[in-house]
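Final report, Chapter 2: Outcomes

The project's central promise was a pipeline that accepts a single protein chain and returns its three-dimensional structure in a standardized token representation, suitable for archiving and comparison. That pipeline is now operational. To close this chapter, we reproduce one record exactly as it appears in the project archive, with the input sequence first and the structure output second.
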Amino acid sequence: MRKGKKDKPDGIDETADKTPPAAGEKIAARSAEPGEKQQISTKEYNKALHELHVELVKLQQWVLHKGLKVCIVFEGRDGAGKGGTIKALTERVSPRVFRVIALPAPNEREKSQMYVQRYLSHLPAAGEVVIFDRSWYNRAGVERVLGFCTPQQTEEFLRATPLVEKAIVNSGVILLKYWLEVSPEEQTRRLKSRFEDGRKIWKLSPLDLKSYNRWYDYSRARDAMFAATDTEFAPWFIAPSDRKRNVRLNIISDILQRVPYKELPRDKITLPKRQKAGGYVQPDLPVKTIAQRY
């Protein structure tokens, strides 16, 4: 059985809410050691990912069996690797258990609601793992930096969020919050690849271009977010993400450590014998077969 850790993540300052650090200071201290590691090879990655996927299936069965409620929040700058990490996390589990939430921009009705209201309806019920590909923390990041909300709205959000998350945790939800931290050089490389590679064009939005040159505005927003919302009951976990394969494995491994689970016993499965044809003959129907181009 893997037991979750309740320690605060390394590098989080207990007094951060009183004296926010300079932009980039806290992250540099956290990511120096992991950043020295080399990109894992494809062979090693596939082997490790296979093993982690097996564990995720065991976790999935335990979540269903015990009626656990798990909520995982992924945040980070554009190009930090959130999408690839979520894909690696969910590709071998059931989408009915592991639900990915990636909300579009709010409509006029949603803009008039309490800010966090449209996110609350997606929180997990018993037997679910809900993954937010960006979350209510949009207000602390992109909305703040690009002026989609007022400074007063940002301050109110930062003040209220720990109270909301405390209520979420008290309701029995296991809440995990991951910040994927990418370097400016790697972000540049990844964003360039989005308009140079026809497979990635859809990933590039006008907001990506608007926010690209606001690196230090995002750093200040991130630091203020950590200072206000890194709490004992819902801490932030930082994942250096310059090496895509490494961060995917590290995050999946971390989730498996933080959500307690056991492997459930399984009945031995054997395939039953197929029925006899009983005179069945496949008819010659005028249906079309696709071209065999490969």
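Archive annotation: DSSP finds eleven helices and five strands in the chain.
This record, like all others produced under the grant, will remain available to the consortium after the project formally closes.
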